[in-house]
Amino acid sequence: MDWWVSMPKIELHAHLNGSIRDSTLLELARALGDKGVIDFSQVEHVILKNDRSLSEVFKLFDLIHVVTTDHSSITRITKEVVEDFAFENVVYLELRTTPKKNDSLGMSKRSYMEAVLEGLRAVRSVDVAFIPYSEEPRNLSSPLLSDASEKCNGNTRKKIFVRLLFSIDRRETTEAAMETVMLALEMRHFGVVGIDLSGNPAVGEWITYLPALKFAREQGLYVTLHCGEVSNSNEIHNMLEFLPHRIGHACFFEEEHWRRLKSSNIPVEICLTSNLRTLSVPTIDAHHFVDLYNAKHPLVLCTDDSGVFSTSLSNEYKIASSSFGLGQKELFELSKNAIEFMFADNVVKEDLRKTFNSAAKNL
Ligand code: IMP
Ligand code: ZN
């Protein structure tokens, strides 16, 4: 496991609230129990349960949202999630989250996202680079990078690039989806680079989100879609026709979908543990990773929800190695290749190529 932890890694599919630490979730739930907002004894077992079906996962998300959706909790979770990824040598993180509105807490989609940014600023143990270089004042590093050269125990401090994707929840209306896209455009200078479509795949219609997704792409935002989490041939077809910049999962694909995917070369975010836990693939041996990898299709290993599925990106690489017989060299290359599909500018990509090249010499 040590090797997979020390290898530099790129995470392109991580949901903020799904990446919450178990300990934090339990602590926040207990505190709400003490205040009488929830009955802690009723929710404790839901949190601690390990194997959940896809529908149980979404029930857990509803609970997580009750427990986490106030500004200070969101700030705390963001800080911890970034620290956890950086700790296992994730050098670039695209973190996605659904901007939420909650009138009773005085929360708007904007204030929710400001709380996320506050969390990025609150990280102390590593340097977090989330402001795109083009937005940094000339000759001045951003406040966050002012100590980029500081040494920690004699070593150069770790640095993690973070970019944000705003998720549209499949329960949302066209107007709500459009509001999310408008907010993403306004917050671009804080490293918001794209839009994700996620949420319970059994809910909602593609046509509802299409106007907002189209608009996002026209405005130069990147778009990634949760695609093929359940069997829905028409929707998968329509999503592939849309030509998103990336897709996540691709589990319930039929022959026609594979052909279209491969000919369009859309990179796929693969989440092995998530797919197994939610029974979206029958066994690891039957996972489509193998076919796509052999076809040299662009792929990236990701966690999806490291908290909810009790995994880490290092663990996902370890599983790929032991399940598919891939060695350290092959998986190092797979990790490095993700630079080509990330939603970041060339300055970041060049910096990361150097990181990987120097790691290759040291590992
Ligand atoms: P949040 O957007 O930070 O609140 O992260 C949790 C949300 O991400 C969930 O409520 C879902 O909308 C979405 N999500 C997390 N995991 C999955 C998944 O496996 N499929 C689809 N949506 C997901
Ligand atoms: Zn996901």
Task: Characterise the protein shown here.
The chain has helices spanning 2-6, 22-34, 40-48, 54-68, 71-87, 109-122, 174-186, 206-218, 233-242, 255-264, 272-277, 289-294, 313-324, 328-337, 346-362, and strands at residues 9-15, 90-97, 127-129, 151-152, 155-156, 159-169, 192-198, 222-227, 246-249, 268-270, 299-301. It has 363 residues and is α/β, with parallel strands linked by helices. The protein folds into 2 domains: 2-20 and 68-362, Metal-dependent hydrolases (TIM Barrel, Alpha-Beta Barrel); 21-67, no CATH class. The strands form 2 sheets. Strands 1, 2, 3, 6, 7, 8, 9, 10 and 11 form a 9-stranded parallel sheet that branches. Strands 4-5 form a two-stranded antiparallel sheet. Strand 6 (159-169), helix 7 and strand 7 form a beta-alpha-beta unit. Helix 5 crosses helix 6 and helix 9 runs parallel beside helix 10 (255-264). The longest helix is centred in the first third of the chain and has 17 residues, at 71-87. The protein is globular, with a radius of gyration of 20 Å. The site of zinc ion has 6 residues, from strand 1. InterPro entries: A_deaminase_dom, Ado/ade_deaminase, Metal_Hydrolase. Its EC number is 3.5.4.4. Keywords: Hydrolase, Metal-binding. It holds the Pfam family A_deaminase.
